[in-house]
Amino acid sequence: MTTVGILGAGQLGRMLALAGYPLGLCFRFLDPAPGAPAGQMAEHIQGDYADTATLERFSAGLDVVTYEFENVPIAAARFLAGRVPVYPPPLALEVAQDRLAEKTFFRSIGAATPPFAPVDSRESLDAAIAQIGLPAVLKTRRLGYDGKGQMVLRAPSDLDAAWAALGATPLILEGFVRFERELSILAARGRGGETAFYPLIENHHRDGILRLSLAPAPGVTSALQAEAEQIAARALTALEYVGVLAIELFEVAGDGSWEVEAGASPQYQPPSPISHLLVNEMAPRVHNSGHWTIEGAETSQFEQHLRAVLGLPLGANTPRGHSAMVNLIGALPDPSAALAIRGAHLHLYGKEPRPARKVGHITVRADAIEELQARLARALDLVR
Ligand code: AMP
């Protein structure tokens, strides 16, 4: 029996296992949290990622190790890589864990990003503002997610409070981007270097949390899709990546008007002709904006990730009609009401509802876009 070890046992791990069972795979999870969603369906070792004895026990007999959570200590990934193949490579984890390393990496492969500067002291915050201008977003370099650990700075009077709230750890200041919309691209690379790209996805956030994804993103030209694929292809190659990689993007007007108004850095030049898409961040794993692929694509992102890390042929990424994914956040809807919507698929993660917690999602699928809009309106009514 091929056994896949997964670091993290959240809903992404659970959906990886659900995709792997038809392929005859077994799963073992490592996660410090009791009652983690994937533990309800597979072996769950509850322990600390930093504990060598736990890692030994976890890795015994595994065929491959992967992650569903990117804030695993690098030392743990490297320790495991000495025993079992670990994909994506720990380097990808390292780059993704630090927003400064991540943006520097994307610039190095010729992708544009928002203007950014490191902030390590109150003085360097002033210097970064002088360079980048206001408004700007101050973020912790590490361990931020779902909009946590970041503040928008609009006026010089905001600086002291932001520094008091965030200044205890290394930070990055980014120019506040007037984007047209947020997109993401999911790409996969197999062990032999073959690649596959899903169509661009349009994402809507509120309070820093993903609420809704539309796929394929409406109105995407083949040129825009090609730009996104080029960024993803370069990242996959540079990282010698294996698995599914998600890249979050800002679509901006091509004329530079997205740049921060006041004091935009005169030195700042987008480093490449790729100028309609700015990279916000990447996730070296399956991603919330790809949940629609379970019903909405020929091969789901979860199956694709497993195929890639196991050295199996990649599947087709072709979409099946139009999909919309609505996250269930903080509360569960009446399941009967959700299932009464034609083309709706309900996914619950086995988590206790708590404010701001993702407890499930609904994907609605339709062959025609008008049909999708009607079904989506009903799904959105359930989460209001
Ligand atoms: P992040 O944790 O970096 O993905 O940020 C969460 C959300 O904040 C993003 O999805 C955007 O909606 C918004 N955001 C982050 N960075 C910027 C930026 N530099 N300019 C404008 N909005 C941003």
SSE layout:
Blueprint: E1 3-7, H1 11-20, E2 26-30, E3 43-45, H2 52-59, E4 64-67, H3 74-81, H4 90-96, H5 99-108, E5 116-119, H6 122-132, E6 136-140, E7 150-153, H7 159-166, E8 171-175, E9 181-189, E10 195-197, E11 201-206, E12 209-215, H8 222-238, E13 243-251, E14 277-283, H9 293-296, H10 301-309, E15 322-329, H11 335-339, E16 344-348, E17 358-366, H12 369-383
Parallel strand pairs: 1-2, 1-4, 2-3
Antiparallel strand pairs: 5-8, 6-7, 6-8, 9-10, 9-11, 9-13, 11-12, 12-15, 13-14, 15-17, 16-17
Helix pairs in contact: 1-10, 3-4
The structure holds adenosine monophosphate.
The span between the termini is 45 Å
Q: Approximately what portion of the residues adopt beta-strand conformation?
A: 25-35%
**What ions, cofactors and ligands are bound?**
adenosine monophosphate
DSSP strand count: 17
Helix content: 25-40%
Which consecutive residue ranges, at least 5 long each, have pLDDT under 50? 260-274
**What is the radius of gyration computed over CA atoms, rounded to a whole number of angstroms?**
21 Å
